[in-house]
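Handoff note, outgoing to incoming analyst
You'll be picking up this chain. Sequence as last confirmed:
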Amino acid sequence: MQKLIVFAIIGFFAQLIDGALGMAYGVTSSSLLLMFGIAPAVASASVHLAEVVTTAASGISHIRFGNVDKYTVSRLTLPGAIGAFVGACFLSNLPGNLIKPYISVFLFVLGVYILLRFILQKQVVQTNNKRLSGKQLIPLGLFAGFVDSTGGGGWGPITTPVLLARGNEARKVVGSVDTSEFPVSLAATLGFFISLGWEQVSWFWVFALMLGGIIAAPIAAWLVRIVPSHLLGVLVGGLIIFTNIRTLLTTFKVNQSVIFLAYIVTGLVVTIALIITTRNQSQQTNKKIVYNKQKQVSP
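Most recent structure output, in case you need it:
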C-alpha cells in the first residue's frame, strides 16, 4: 500500500508538471523511478504504458479546445512512433546495470537544459506562419521519439522548444506536442512488450502512475493559470538534476558527504535560477506595460 501511494504521488507530480508546461512527464517520472532502483528498460516501459492513458486524455482535451495544429501533428506522429519503437527495442537489449548511469547522465543533461531554457527564456513573438516543413519535422520526430524511449522521456523537452523557437503560438505548440505523444508512447510500449515481454512490466507501478496522473490532470489545467510557467520550469529542471545526481555519484562510489554537498549546491543553483527568472519576467512585464502605455498615448 505504501508503494502504491509513493508511485501514485510520482505520477501525480509528473502529470502536474507536464500538464502545466507541456513537457517533462517522462523525464520526471523516469528519474524518480531510477532513484528507487528500478532498471532503466522497465522504468521506461512502465512510464510509457502509463503515458498511453494520460497522453490520450490530454490529446482529446487539446483537440476539443482547438489547441492542435493538424499539419504539425501529422508530420510528427509517424516518425516519432518509429523512433520510439526502435529506441525501445535498443534499450531492452542492453544490460540494466550497464546502461543506468548513461541514462542518468542523459536525464541530468535534460534537467540542466530545462533549467537553462527557462533562465534564458525571452519573449517570443507569436505567429502562425512559421511552421517547420515536413522535411524538418520528420527527422525531429525520429530523433525525439528515439530519445524519448531510450531515456524514459524527452519528447516534450526536445520538440516543444524547437517549435516555440519558430515563433509558433504557445498553446498550439503544447497541444500539438501532447497530442502527437500518444502514438509515440503506444509505439514505445509495443517495442518494450516485444523485447522485454509482458511479464517484465510491473502493472502495479503502471496503475499507480496512471492513478496519480488522472488525478493531477484537471489540477494541472487550473495550476497553469495560476503559477507562472518560468517558476515551474526552473523547479522541474532542479528536480530532475536533484534526482539523478545520486545515481551518478553512487556509480563512481562517491561517499555520502560529497553527495550531500552536491545536493546543497543543486539547491543553491535552483534558488539563484528562481531569482534570475523572476527578475527577467518582471523586466519583461514592465516593458510590456510601458509599450502598451505608449501605444495608447500615440495617435
